[in-house]
Inverse folding.
C-alpha cells in the first residue's frame, strides 16, 4: 500500500505505506483542521526539510523519509527527489509540518483545501 493523504472536515491524515512506515520508524500522522495553518506547494521538497533526523532515512539528494526535529517543531517528511512537494503546516500538535512528494502538488493542495471545507475529498 502506498503512502496517501486523506482529508475531511475534521483534519488531514498522512497514512504511511508499509515501506515508508518501516523507513520512517513511525506510524501515521494526523493534523486536526483547527490546527492547520497552511497548505502550500514548495518547489523543492528536499530543501524544505531541515533539522536533525530522528528517526528516519536520509539519502542526500534522493530521499528523506521520517521525522526531522528542530526548534520550531517536528517535520514528518516523505520526500523523494528534488521535485515539488506538498507542505502542510500546523499551529499545534506533535507534528508541526508534513512535507510529502506528490505527482500534482498544486491540484492536490486545492483538493485538500476543498475537503477540509467539506466540499469533497
Amino acid at each position: 500500500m502506498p503512502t496517501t493523504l486523506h482529508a475531511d472536515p475534521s483534519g488531514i491524515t498522512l497514512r504511511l505505506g508499509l515501506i515508508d512506515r518501516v523507513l520512517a520508524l513511525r506510524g501515521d500522522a494526523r493534523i486536526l483542521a483547527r490546527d492547520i495553518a497552511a497548505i502550500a506547494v514548495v518547489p523543492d521538497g528536499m530543501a524544505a526539510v531541515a533539522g536533525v533526523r530522528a528517526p528516519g532515512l536520509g539519502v542526500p539528494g534522493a530521499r528523506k523519509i521520517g521525522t526531522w526535529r528542530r526548534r520550531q517543531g517536528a517535520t514528518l517528511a516523505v520526500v523523494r527527489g528534488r521535485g515539488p512537494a506538498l507542505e502542510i503546516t500546523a499551529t499545534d500538535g506533535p507534528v508541526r509540518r508534513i512535507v510529502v512528494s506528490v505527482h500534482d502538488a498544486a491540484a492536490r493542495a486545492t483538493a485538500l483545501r476543498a475537503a477540509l471545507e467539506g466540499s469533497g475529498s
